[in-house]
Request: fold
Amino acid sequence: MLRLKSSTVGFKEWSLVCDALGGGAQSLILRKGGIAEGKGGFQWQCSEFLLFPTHFHEQAARVHWQPTPEVVTAMATPEVIEIRHAARLEWHQNITDWEVAARLAPFHVWNEEVIRERFGYGDVTGLSIAFCRIYQLPEPWRLEQRPAFGGCRSWLDLPERETGDLTPVLSDDEHVARDAALRALIE
Reply:
């Protein structure tokens, strides 16, 4: 079980990717960073965070994941953000070799085109990957969309809220096996 501190941080990610993380289909987050990340670019700022789903309809063509009915409903009502999962960052690494990035395909739902775009974006070639333990909130947290949640940035300050006890979406054995497989692949 995990219980987040009362001050909460949100990590913006595509709705369908949040759904895949919450469904146990992946434990990996790939990030390059948005234009509002600042001079230093994207950084893994927090070790525990809520997955803040972002909605745009084009993402369905950019992933190979069939969304759950809850996500389909949530995407139809973008004025309300529904947070259903939290993550604990276990480790992260920068990947600068395209062959290594390509071998990650079985561990995420993004199409190769998306990974290629992110890998080659900006001045520095590569991706930041993070292996996370994903947890289910006891009940979804619904927030009204507001301007403070917008922009091309990864991290958000969210209102304080106790999360209660969170349940891992993967068993300990599944999580350890996935961790070992990913580490073997990138070394």
